[in-house]
């Protein structure tokens, strides 16, 4: 059985290796041999997610030609990578990237911090803000007033309350994307929506293409369904999707599904432009891949005058390629577990039929609360409060991290809830462990990658501001000092949840 799920061409790998930042030599040390420098370069590309795990590398002769090196040098580099666990090979199948077996992926995330610990620990694990009051209270009161007629029914609405399905459909139509309520299924959060989609479209062993990095909880959900994840590296910084890589993966791996976050990507904050959106839909349609688009961050544009691109489903008028997932959790409140799927009516019918064997339906009271917000204009006002909270927190956190940790690198996103930070060569997993020792919880980069990538990153959410952001950055600086000094910091233990 072939072990690789994507390929990296010789010219592409050569460009990536030549584009790496040259690190200055420590005084008194010698320049490493060419094979060692090549092996280190490939290893760094894997750890940073620039080259996916399980990607087939070019043959030794091809790479030697592209890099103007001898084949002996490339062969020695490949042998060093195999010895270190970053490359596997089999006669007739070639060589593909891997991660060492002794460094298991911390696939799960951070569980929500217990309320009793909030006084002593700053929690940067969950990208979720407190409810935007008074709108939560008003929505629940409005829902209670509208509940009595529903209380006289069985209460099971597998596709969602008709009123809320109509409301969500009207919102898409208002964006210039004609939508009928028959194209909407209300779910228990976005996770419930994607779980239903995966079970319907991607059976055990099916390939699912995912951005690299991607949302940690979704990656774990897909692993537990038995899917084979095919990572597709993002552009550097906030560049969004690398369309050349997407076309190659869709063509070569032929995944059944592809999962993307087009709007203020979690964790990088990237915003895909209209050209990328159109191109990805066309590539997915050509490959016969169903494109699952997560819109949970779409309303969290934080900078004034942000000109948002059209929704991805606008480029799929027939509805044959794109399944759109939305949610109230990020834009309103994580405690309001309401999500939805927009798809062709026949897909919605299949999802609803399959749902009968899962959760039966979404709580009526919460659906009524979201419907009340959307019907009365409270949703727009609540989202405005959320944007203001997130913007203030983002700006405070950026200032604090730049002041306390000037060696850390990041680009400031124009929206969303997360900052994706390169930690100056420090292990993100070890930073997470050291952080808990000094009173700050932060998820490490490998939680957002496939099979061990992004060890040199952490994700910082916009959940704290003001003096708390200052204190969080100071504690992170203390943790960084512990890691840099090697003060007995072990590997990060698996946990269970990253929001």
Features:
disordered C terminus, 7-stranded mixed β-sheet, globular, 16 helices, 15 strands, two-stranded parallel ribbon, 499 residues, alpha/beta
Structure overview:
With 499 residues, the chain is of the alpha/beta class. The protein has 16 helices and 15 strands. The strands form five sheets. A seven-stranded mixed β-sheet has the order 6-12-11-10-9-7-8, sandwiched between helices. Strand 9 (257-260), helix 11 and strand 10 form a beta-alpha-beta unit. Residues 23-27, 103-109 and 491-497 have low confidence and may be disordered.
What's the helix and strand layout?
Blueprint: E1 6-7, H1 10-18, H2 34-47, E2 55-56, H3 60-67, H4 71-84, E3 87-90, E4 94-97, E5 122-123, H5 135-146, H6 148-151, H7 162-174, E6 184-187, H8 189-201, E7 207-212, H9 216-224, E8 228-233, H10 243-253, E9 257-260, H11 274-287, E10 290-294, E11 322-327, E12 339-342, H12 345-355, H13 364-376, H14 378-404, E13 418-422, H15 428-438, E14 440-441, E15 457-461, H16 466-485
Parallel strand pairs: 1-2, 5-14, 7-8, 7-9, 9-10, 10-11
Antiparallel strand pairs: 3-4, 6-12, 11-12, 13-15
Helix pairs in contact: 1-3, 2-4, 3-4, 5-13, 7-13, 8-9, 10-11, 14-16, 15-16
Summarize the structure in short.
By secondary structure, the protein is α/β, with parallel strands linked by helices.
Strand content: 5-15%
Main sheet strand line-up: 6-12-11-10-9-7-8
Question: Radius of gyration in whole Å, from Cα?
Answer: 23 Å
* Mean pLDDT over the residues: 87
**Helix coverage percent:** 40-55%
Number of helices: 16
The structure class reads: alpha/beta
Biggest beta sheet attributes: 7 strands, mixed
Shape: globular
- Quaternary arrangement of the chains shown? single chain
Compute the separation of the termini in Å.
35 Å
Q: State the total count of DSSP E strands.
A: 15
Low-pLDDT residue spans:
23-27, 103-109, 491-497
